[in-house]
């Protein structure tokens, strides 16, 4: 099996984890004979060392300009970081010419902004770090920005959300190239999940909602997460917080930014998704385990939150990586 090449672009102010996370994934892969499946190299525009946003200095293997006549890499990876804020016309020009030559063009975090400036995302679906999705959409209206998924595949171009999402995307690419067993081996070595699906929202319910400052409300948030199959009515939750239902509902929304009902809905959908993704339990059993009571109730919740039924969600999750990513706004 021919060794695949991965070229990671470096620049001043790059986010170090956007570089090292995917590099560790690709470097951990081996072909059936035990030889490295990928040759990972790095290059800055002029070949000079770059200082990352965290202060680390990375020494590239090559100069991008010196690679003009070299064979195109199998995967060209563009990381993000604070260093994407300057316009960087020379780097953008290089990407505009050489990006389309790679079999696979990948960005991590705000690396998508560099690809967009080079016109490489025009007409495509893409994502980036949640804090920059509005900017990407505003500055590049030809790009179909999807703010929720942790990564998006559109043909030969793949874009991911912030930092650790680059690891998820790299694992998905290894699984596509070498199979699930190899991706699982790497994930175990790095002590990460094998694969968070690209359509998983960048925010879980716990991240999307603010953490309540008062301990009784924090305890209720944790209780909801740990007991999605319990009675999570406002009355029962208020009793746990030792508040009246009216006071509890008002305080919960004031401190978390969402109503108790909406928080419960998010937690239940997320729990149901994990069970559908990671277990073989039937839809009826999953619906009971997540507090829906009936498969029809869970189906309505999925259609409202994800735009698809539970059985279809499971089918798409376990489909080949090239399958179109779902939009997963849980708002």
UniProtKB/TrEMBL annotation:
Annotated GO MF terms: DNA-binding transcription factor activity; sequence-specific DNA binding
Record's signal peptide: none
One Pfam family named in its UniProt record: DJ-1_PfpI
Record keywords: Transcription, Transcription regulation
UniProt-listed InterPro entries: Class_I_gatase-like, DJ-1/PfpI, Homeodomain-like_sf, HTH_AraC, INH-QAR
Domain HTH araC/xylS-type: 218-316
Protein name as catalogued: Transcriptional regulator
Annotated source species: Streptomyces longispororuber
Source organism, top-level taxon: Bacteria
């Amino acid at each position: 099996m021919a060794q695949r090449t991965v070229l990671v672009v470096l620049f001043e102010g790059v986010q170090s984890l956007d570089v090292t996370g995917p590099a560790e994934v690709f470097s951990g892969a081996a072909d059936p004979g035990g030889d490295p499946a990928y040759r990972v190299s790095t290059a800055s525009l002029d070949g000079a060392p770059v200082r990352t946003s965290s202060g680390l200095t990375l020494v590239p293997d090559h100069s991008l300009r010196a690679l003009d006549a070299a064979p195109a890499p199998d995967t060209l990876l563009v990381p993000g970081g604070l260093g994407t804020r300057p316009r960087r016309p020379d780097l953008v020009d290089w990407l505009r010419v050489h990006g389309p030559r790679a079999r696979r063009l990948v960005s991590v975090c705000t690396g998508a902004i560099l690809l967009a400036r080079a016109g490489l995302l025009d007409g495509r679906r893409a994502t980036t770090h949640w804090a920059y999705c509005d900017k990407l959409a505003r500055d590049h209206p030809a790009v179909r920005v999807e703010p929720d998924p942790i990564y998006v595949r559109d043909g030969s171009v793949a874009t991911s959300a912030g930092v650790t999402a680059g690891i998820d995307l790299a694992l998905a690419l290894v699984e596509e190239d070498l199979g699930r067993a190899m991706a699982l081996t790497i994930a175990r070595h790095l002590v990460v999940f094998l694969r968070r699906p690209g359509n998983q929202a960048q925010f879980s319910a716990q991240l999307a909602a603010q953490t309540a400052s008062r301990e009784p409300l924090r305890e209720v948030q944790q209780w909801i997460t740990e007991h999605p199959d319990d009675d999570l009515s406002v009355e029962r939750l208020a009793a746990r917080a030792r508040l009246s239902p009216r006071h509890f509902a008002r305080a919960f929304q004031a401190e978390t930014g969402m109503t108790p009902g909406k928080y419960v809905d998010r937690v239940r959908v997320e729990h149901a998704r994990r069970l559908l993704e990671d277990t073989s339990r039937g839809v009826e059993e999953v619906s009971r385990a997540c507090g829906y009571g009936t498969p029809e109730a869970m189906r309505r919740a999925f259609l409202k939150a994800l735009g698809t039924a539970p059985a279809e969600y499971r089918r798409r999750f376990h489909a080949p990586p090239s399958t179109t990513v779902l939009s997963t706004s849980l708002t």
